[in-house]
Design goal:
two-stranded parallel sheet, globular, alpha/beta
Length: 303
């Protein structure tokens, strides 16, 4: 970090297969700047697919490898059950996702990860939010939260990726955990709060790069019927709520950090979070946006 007085944060949205956009954008940054992503930031926060990418970044896994993961593994992750009964089983078996995570992400206890890392999840038994943190949460401070030292990085990621109806919740210790998208699909606000409270930084000293997974511009149209299936739609409603939360978090972070908040999030059609047909389009969007924002990103990270 060229300027040690500035606290740099990377916040990565959830979005299923649309995480390809994030991985490709970060891969372009690594290639252009000649440095691993984790060396550019003092705190990395991720939700769901963003948690996979954040976990890879703190594990010294090149982002190009994660692009390859999305290319080759998402058809395996999102392979439907041939015998699924929608009212009784999740859309996809969690075992398929767990196999891919185990193949690509090390089984490192969070307490052994030196880079400050936040991974969001939702404790559905008690209706509470839950955040996994790496070792930075263990230092002696009243504002420092517990660090979940013994929890494996893979398990934290699986919990953050357990989107309702798509995957079953992940039990960890005495907790029943689901996707962090339920309250923090865009983790910008919680990451900024962490910098202010736990790390004791002033807002003017914080710089955050926030990467979304696409903002759909054609979610709904006016129609006569607005039932669960005929109007709102199950998967569509989930995506819509995720998008609204991401926008709200971005708006709050922008008010808090002002010009020190850089949000990169492309406009897309209504691409479902489990679609594997738009991966090439997502990579193309990331290439376009990197070229558009390269100078700004470089200045933002190094300032």
């Amino acid at each position: 970090m060229e300027n040690t007085n500035t606290f740099h944060i990377l916040a990565l949205d959830g979005g299923g297969t649309r995480g390809m956009y994030t991985a490709q954008l970060l891969a372009k940054i690594e290639r252009a700047f000649g440095t691993p992503i984790k060396t550019c930031f003092d705190l990395i926060a991720g939700t769901s697919t963003g948690a996979i990418i954040a976990g890879a970044a703190v594990s010294d896994i090149p982002m190009a490898d994660i692009v390859e993961l999305f290319d080759t593994e998402t058809p395996h992750i999102f392979r439907k059950r041939w015998y699924r009964i929608p009212l009784f089983l999740s859309k996809y078996p969690s075992e398929q996702l767990a196999q891919v995570i185990a193949k690509h992400i090390p089984a490192t206890p969070l307490g052994e990860i030196a880079t400050p890392l936040m991974i969001t999840s939702s404790e559905i038994a008690k209706s509470e939010v839950h955040i996994f943190r790496s070792n930075y949460g263990s230092h002696d401070s009243e504002s420092a939260p517990p660090a979940n030292k013994e929890v494996c990085l893979r398990d934290a990621i699986l919990a953050s990726c357990a989107a309702p109806t798509f995957f079953a919740p992940k039990p960890i210790d005495n907790l029943l955990l689901a996707d962090g998208c339920l309250w923090a699909n865009n983790p910008s606000t919680i990451a900024a709060t962490e910098a202010l409270s736990v790390f004791g930084k002033e807002a003017r000293r914080i710089r955050m790069l926030s990467v979304g997974t696409g903002h759909s511009v054609n979610m709904y149209r006016n129609r006569r019927g607005w039932g669960a299936l005929t109007g709102w739609g199950g998967a569509k409603l989930t995506s819509y709520v995720m998008t609204l939360q991401a926008q709200a978090s971005a708006h709050t972070a922008k008010l808090l950090l002002k010009g020190n908040y850089l949000r990169i999030n492309p406009e897309i059609a209504r691409w479902e979070i489990d679609s594997v047909t738009q991966l090439d389009n997502l990579k193309s969007l990331a290439d376009r946006d990197f070229e558009k924002h390269a100078t700004e990103i470089r200045t933002f990270i190094s300032a």
